[in-house]
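re the bet — no i am not wrong, look at it urself. input seq straight from the record:
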Amino acid sequence: MIILGVDPGYATIGYGVVEYNNSIFRTLDYGAIKTPPEDFFEKRLFTIYNLINDIIKLYKPSDMAIENIYFTTNKKTAINVAQARGIIILSGYENNCKISEYTPLQVKQAVVGYGKAEKYQVMEMTKKILKLKIMPKLDDISDALAICVCHGHSGTSSKYNDNKMR
């Protein structure tokens, strides 16, 4: 299976594309989608939608794994990230990806084996599992790759792709 892992946002969206076959991971691509802060919000959403679609069309993932969002303080940021997340999920759904969501706790548990692991521990294990020489410096990208690993290890939490919905 090919997994598109996404760390959602609207300024920076991390993504990773990983092939998972017989418990073996192979990294195909990773990066970040960045939207210009001077663009109006709707244009930023449109940019995200188009670029996620481009990635999906290029790699044809069967699965999209996306992180759930959790905010405690800035409600405006949470609402904007939620809207971008909706656009990302829509893109996956339109392209027939099986969509699964994971909390940060689930990602840590699946990657490190401990739900309260520190960020550096998750990054180091992800690097090791994916056999990367260096881990991307940008947290959004490393989080997206960790989400891919999480999905490969526990990819059973599909929420959106019930064919009866179409």
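see?? The helical segments are 41-59, 75-94, 104-112, 119-129, 139-154. told u. also The chain has a mean pLDDT of 91. so pay up
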